[in-house]
Amino acid sequence: MINLNLIKTVNDFNFYNKIALIRVDFNIPINPKNFHILDDTRIKSSIPTIKKVLYDNGKVILLSHFGRPKGKYNKNYSIKFLIPYLYKKLKVTIKFSEYCIGPMVEQLVLNLKNKEVMLLENLRFYQEEEDNNKLFAFQLSKLGDIYVNDAFGSSHRFHASITTLPKLFVNRKCIGFLMEKEIKSLNKFLGTGKQPISVLLGGSKINSKIKIIKNLVHFADHILIGGGMAYPFIKILGGQIGDSLTEKYDKKIETELKSVLENNHKKIFFPKDVIIVNNNEHQTKIVSINSIPHGWKGLDIGPESINFFCTILKQSKTILWNGPFGVFEQHPFYIGTQSIAKFIVELTIKNNCFSLVGGGDSIAALKMIQLENKVSYISTGGGALLESLQNTTLPGIQAFFS
Question: Would you list the DSSP string of 120-182?
Answer without folding.
Answer: EPPGGGSHHHHTT-HHHHHHHHTT-SEEEE--GGGTTS--IIIIITGGGGTTSEEE-HHHHHH
